[in-house]
Structures are given as structure tokens and as C-alpha cells.
């Protein structure tokens, strides 16, 4: 990265954080959401929304970027000056994060700064869409509805990641293959910070939390920074699950989970069924609790949560509308295949052994058996040896049921997608399975978090009220 | 017998040492144990990460076409063979779509269809060069206009 590239990425980061913070202030976000990492992720959704609105309002995206970015930066400068202590805290937090990443993830940092986009999806799909958006000055049907590109570039995929690269391209002034992937490193740092904050929220000490967060971010690390999109929906979804269904949930947890679900929804198509299932589950749990008379406020959507849901869902809906108007289609056509049940069942039966075999092999490569063994051992430890700890009275907590359910559902969905793929199933598995299995592995890591909490005797995610050591 | 007694005393010591995992007052020790285990894992991970970073660095610095990774570089194209009968040929037919795709990414917004017989690549053309994965930059690639090779990276 040249100096100009770094400058463009820094301006992008600052303007995104400022826009996100402005939005979070507008929706009266609770304290849990008042961090630079959350503001950065919210700002990404704002960029996407602005780009989507620009299509329908016939405004050049370049004007939108300079206008909104300038406004955000000006407001951010005034706000930082007026709340210097807050700004200093955010700055120190960012510096700490960079130091941790430099110490523990130097290869990730090197990939962002020096390694070109050599992965297929990164170059041919995500960043290529970004380049097209930058070249056309917005989300243009000239590219996205062009069948010659749709054939291999999957122009139906959501646009959160491409839009971020396009914004950096506009700020940089020209398309730089190095600068436009700078946001991947920023995303990685935001997830690391949020994971740490989530564990601290659950009662973990800072030291323990940093250790666990670093290890969890090490799962398929390269895919956060090499331009693949899968980790950018898998980690937000895993975080959302850890936040939304934890026992000592507050209203802020729901709002933050909604923001993360909005991010995941706009990153990749695969996130849609997971977000939908999560939302339905949340609604059902709320209904059950409401009928039983448990009217805790933490289950009720707040004004902040509605605002965040709006910013997360509207760009997704606008993109669906754009696709429908311009005839932008995917290549899998799963819907039409599902409508012919006879053919799909026979295909499943035929392909299931191949898919299950590939899943097993890939799990071994991802060290899932080791993780599974650790979760099992910790659960047994908590259950059998530490009977005195009250939190272990349930075999599985409600949150663990959700996480285990998530692991099973992701596998079933993958089984159905590969079972119905129009491509050669072995080829399709070979090109994508390692990435798509990251979500269940992260959910399993979430179960590891719950198991450690049981061993440590955190009751309802809180450590024992008094230190009980000798 | 002495040996057995000795071993048993050792076993008792071990059991005493691990007793904390069963007792509620052992919570703090349990936490310390978890911190030690997780801390050691993080240290091991960091060592692995630094090794990977150096490997990554050596990989990319040892490539002969390292310069092409710097954006804004351009390449010259040299034809090796004329495509007299306008058919796709070369080392692998399967490779051809990928080559076209790569070309279209490289040249976008000029579409690769522009590289047809009507508008073939010309020897000496200069294009912004991007790194390749399926098709190494320095090797021969095939297009409908003929076999060409990206010969040289120029600043």
C-alpha cells in the first residue's frame, strides 16, 4: 500500500465511524453500542443505504460519497472536539486493537497491506463488483444486469462489501487493488473488538476475554482479509447469536444483534435463511415469554432496534427490487429445483454420501473434532466434577440449545444446497465447502464459550458475586 | 510393596492438587487454570502467526513478477503465434474461459468480447496487470485472437 492508499483507507474509516456514530445517536443507542467498532459497522450499512438510494434518486454515487463523507467528517471533528475524553478513548482503543493485531495476527496485517487479491471470489466477485460500481459511478444495471458478467461473476450477490471498496475507490480517486481491500482489515478489527466486548459483557475478565477472542478470530483467519465474504457474515451471525440469546440480556444486546444480523444479511445470500430463522426464533421466544407473563424489557424491540433493523433491511429489500426490475438472477435456481420434489429427493439421496464425506474431511481440516472434544470435555467437567456450581444444574442452557440448533441447521442447509446444485457436486464442494463451514465452527466455538462459563461457575453469564478464592 | 505405597502417595498428591476443580471455593483457581491454558494457546498461536507472516513475505518477495503486484503497473503483450483459423486452441480448452474472465477483469470496463476477431489483442498493447492464480502471469495464455504472453512488467 502506498501512502495515498493508507490515507484513503484512513479517511474511509473515519468517515464511516462518524456516519455510524451519527446514526446511533439519532436512534438513541444504549451504552453497549457506543463503541467505534459498532459505529464503524453501522456506518457501513449507511454507505450501502446511500448507494442504494442513489440509484433510485438518480444521484451520482461520487457526489453521495463526498457529500455524506464530508458531512460525517465535519460532524465527527466537532463531536470529537466537544467530547475529547470520548474521542481519546476511541483513539486509544483503536491503537490497542492495532497493537494486538500486529502482535497476534501479523500475517493478516501483511495480507491486507501487501498481498494482492489472488483468490477467485475476491477478484472475480466481490472486489470486481466494487470496481464495476466505481467505474459506473453507482450500482448500474449496465454491469449487474449484463448477462455476460452475470454468468460468472454472480451479479445477484448482495453489495455491502463491493460498496465499501467502491467508496474507498472514490476517496482514493482511482482504482487501486491494494487500497480498495483496506476495509477488510478494518472489519477484522471491528469483529475482534466486538467479540472481546461481548465476552466482557458476559462477565469475562479482560485478560480471559482477549485470549478467547484471539483464538476465536484465528478460525479460518485468512478468509477475513483475503477478500472472501463468508467470514464477514459468519462472524456477525455467531456474535449475534451470543448476544441475542444470552441469559442476562439487556435491550442493547438485541439492538447490537440486529445490527450484526443486518450486516450479515447484506454480505451474502447464505445469511438470509439464518437471519430469517433467528428472527422467527426470537419472535417465538418473545411470544412464549409474553404468554407466560414474563414481560422483561430485554425481549422488546426498542426504538434503537427498530432503527437499526430499518437500516439493515431496507438496503437488502432495495437490492431485491433492483434485481427484480432489471432481471438480475442467481445461478443456483434452488427455488425452481425445490418445486420438483421427486427430482430433488432423488438427487439428495444420490449425492448425500459424497456431501457428508466431504463435510467430514473438511471438518478435520478445520480442526472441528478438536474443538468439539474441548466443548464436550469442558461440559463434562462442569457437569460431573463441579456439581456444586449452580449454573450446571441444567444439562444445556437455552442459549446452548440455540447454538446447537444453529450447528445442525447450518449443516442441513448446506446439505440441501449442495444436494440441489446444478453444478458437478464434487467441484462445487471443492470450491466452497471450506468457507461455508466456518459458521457452524464459529457456533461451536460459541458453545465452547458457554462451556468455559459453566466451568468457571458464571451463573447467568455473571461471575460469582464475591471472589471465592483462598 | 514399597513401590506401590510410594506410587499411591504420589497419586494422593495428584488428587489433592486437582481437588480444586471439584470445590466451589476453587473457582478462582479454575479461572487461573483457564487463563493459563488460553494464554499458552494464544502464545503458540502468535508464534505460528509470525512464522506464517514470514513465509507469506518470502513467497511474495521471491516471485519473479513481484512488481506486478504494485497497482498501476502495466504489461506489454507479445504474440507468439498467429491464430489463422480463428479457433480456440492452446494448452487446455478448459482454461480458456478463465483466461477470458481474467482478461475481462483486467481490462474492465472494456469487455472481453472486445477481444474477438474484430478487435484482437495487438502485440505491444499495454494493459494494467493484475496477479493471476489459475493462470500464472508469466505463462502463456490463450484467447481467440491467438496465443500471447505477457512478457514484461513496466512501471
* Class of secondary structure makeup of chain A: mainly alpha
How many DSSP E strands of chain A? 0
Low-confidence stretches of chain A: 466-470
**Range of helix content of chain B:** 40-55%
Mean pLDDT value of chain A: 85
Q: What can be said about the biggest beta sheet of chain A?
A: none
**Order of strands in the sheet with most strands of chain B:** 2-1-4-3
Structural description of this entry:
The complex is a heterodimer of chains A (470) and B (155). Chain A is built from 22 helices and no strands. Chain A has helices at residues 3-26, 36-57, 61-82, 84-104, 106-114, 120-136, 141-144, 147-153, 160-172, 182-201, 206-217, 222-225, 230-244, 251-265, 271-291, 303-326, 334-338, 341-365, 368-385, 398-419, 425-436, 438-455. Residues 466-470 of chain A have low confidence and may be disordered. Chain B folds into 2 domains: 2-62, no CATH class; 66-154, no CATH class. Chain B has 3 helices and 4 strands; from the N terminus they run H-H-E-H-E-E-E. Chain B is an alpha+beta fold. The radius of gyration of chain B is 31 Å and the shape is elongated. Chain B is 43% helix and 16% strand. In chain B, a hairpin with a 2-residue loop joins strand 3 and strand 4 (146-154). At the A-B interface, helix 5, helix 6, helix 8 and helix 11 of A face helix 2 and helix 3 of B.
Short description:
With 470 residues, chain A is mainly α. Chain A is built from 22 helices and no strands.
Note the main attributes of this structure:
heterodimer; A: 470 residues; mainly alpha; 74% helix; 0% strand; B: 155 residues; alpha+beta; 2 domains; 3 helices; 4 strands; 43% helix; 16% strand; elongated; disordered C terminus
Amino acid at each position: 500500500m502506498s501512502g495515498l492508499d493508507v490515507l484513503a483507507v484512513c479517511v474511509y474509516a473515519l468517515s464511516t465511524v462518524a456516519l455510524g456514530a451519527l446514526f446511533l445517536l439519532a436512534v438513541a443507542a444504549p451504552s453497549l453500542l457506543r463503541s467505534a467498532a459498532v459505529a464503524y459497522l453501522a456506518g457501513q450499512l449507511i454507505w450501502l443505504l446511500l448507494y442504494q438510494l442513489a440509484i433510485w434518486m438518480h444521484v451520482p454515487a461520487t457526489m453521495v460519497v463526498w457529500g455524506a463523507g464530508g458531512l460525517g467528517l465535519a460532524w465527527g471533528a466537532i463531536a470529537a472536539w466537544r467530547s475529547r475524553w470520548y474521542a481519546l478513548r476511541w483513539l486509544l482503543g483503536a491503537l490497542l486493537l492495532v497493537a494486538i493485531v500486529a502482535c497476534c495476527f501479523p500475517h493478516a496485517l501483511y495480507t491486507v497491506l501487501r498481498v494482492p487479491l489472488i483468490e477467485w471470489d475476491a477478484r472475480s466477485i466481490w472486489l470486481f463488483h466494487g470496481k464495476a460500481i466505481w467505474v459506473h459511478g453507482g450500482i448500474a444495471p449496465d454491469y449487474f444486469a449484463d448477462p455476460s458478467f452475470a454468468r460468472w461473476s454472480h451479479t445477484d450477490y448482495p453489495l455491502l462489501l463491493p460498496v465499501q471498496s467502491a467508496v474507498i475507490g472514490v476517496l482514493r480517486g482511482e482504482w487501486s487493488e491494494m487500497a480498495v481491500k483496506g476495509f477488510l482489515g478494518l472489519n477484522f478489527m471491528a469483529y475482534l473488538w466486538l467479540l472481546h466486548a461481548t465476552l466482557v459483557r458476559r462477565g469475562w475478565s479482560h485478560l480471559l476475554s482477549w485470549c478467547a477472542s484471539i483464538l476465536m478470530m484465528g478460525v479460518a483467519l485468512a478468509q477475513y482479509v483475503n477478500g472472501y465474504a463468508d467470514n464477514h457474515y459468519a462472524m456477525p451471525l455467531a456474535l449475534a447469536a451470543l448476544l441475542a440469546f444470552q441469559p442476562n440480556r439487556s435491550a442493547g444486546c438485541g439492538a447490537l444483534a440486529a445490527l450484526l444480523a443486518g450486516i450479515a444479511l447484506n454480505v451474502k445470500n447464505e445469511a438470509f435463511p439464518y437471519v430469517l430463522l433467528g428472527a422467527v426464533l426470537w419472535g417465538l421466544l418473545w411470544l412464549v415469554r409474553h404468554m407466560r407473563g414474563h414481560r422483561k424489557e430485554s425481549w422488546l424491540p426498542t426504538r434503537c432496534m427498530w432503527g437499526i433493523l430499518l437500516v439493515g433491511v431496507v438496503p437488502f429489500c432495495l437490492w431485491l427490487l433492483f434485481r427484480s426490475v432489471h432481471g438480475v438472477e442467481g445461478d443456483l435456481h434452488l427455488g425452481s429445483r425445490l418445486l420438483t420434489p421427486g427430482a430433488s429427493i432423488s438427487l439428495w439421496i444420490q449425492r448425500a454420501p459424497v456431501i457428508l464425506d466431504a463435510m467430514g474431511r473438511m471438518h478435520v481440516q478445520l480442526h472441528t473434532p478438536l474443538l468439539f472434544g474441548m466443548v464436550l470435555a469442558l461440559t463434562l467437567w462442569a457437569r460431573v466434577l463441579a456439581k456444586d456450581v449452580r449454573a450446571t444444574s441444567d444439562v444445556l442452557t437455552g442459549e446452548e440449545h440455540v447454538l446447537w440448533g444453529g450447528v445442525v441447521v447450518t449443516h442441513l442447509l448446506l446439505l440441501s444446497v449442495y444436494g440441489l446444485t446444478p453444478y458437478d457436486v464434487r467441484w462445487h464442494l471443492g470450491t466452497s465447502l471450506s468457507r461455508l463451514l466456518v459458521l457452524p465452527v464459529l457456533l461451536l466455538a460459541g458453545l465452547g464459550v458457554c462451556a468455559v462459563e459453566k466451568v468457571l461457575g458464571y451463573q447467568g453469564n455473571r461471575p460469582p458475586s464475591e471472589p471465592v478464592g483462598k | 510393596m514399597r513401590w506401590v505405597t510410594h506410587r499411591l502417595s504420589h497419586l494422593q498428591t495428584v488428587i489433592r492438587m486437582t481437588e480444586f476443580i471439584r470445590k466451589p471455593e476453587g473457582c478462582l483457581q479454575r479461572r487461573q487454570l483457564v487463563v493459563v491454558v488460553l494464554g499458552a494457546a494464544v502464545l503458540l498461536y502468535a508464534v505460528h502467526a509470525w512464522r506464517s507472516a514470514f513465509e507469506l513475505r518470502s513467497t511474495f518477495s521471491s516471485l519473479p513478477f513481484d512488481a506486478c503486484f504494485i497497482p498501476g503497473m502495466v504489461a506489454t503483450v507479445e504474440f507468439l503465434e498467429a491464430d489463422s483459423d480463428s479457433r480456440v486452441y492452446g494448452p487446455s480448452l478448459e482454461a480458456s474461459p478463465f483466461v477470458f474472465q481474467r482478461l475481462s477483469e483486467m481490462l474492465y470496463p472494456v469487455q472481453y468480447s472486445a477481444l474477438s476477431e474484430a478487435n484482437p489483442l495487438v502485440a505491444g498493447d499495454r494493459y494494467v496487470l493484475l496477479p493471476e492464480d489459475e493462470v500464472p502471469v508469466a505463462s502463456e495464455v490463450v484467447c481467440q485472437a491467438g496465443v500471447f504472453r505477457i512478457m514484461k512488467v513496466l512501471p
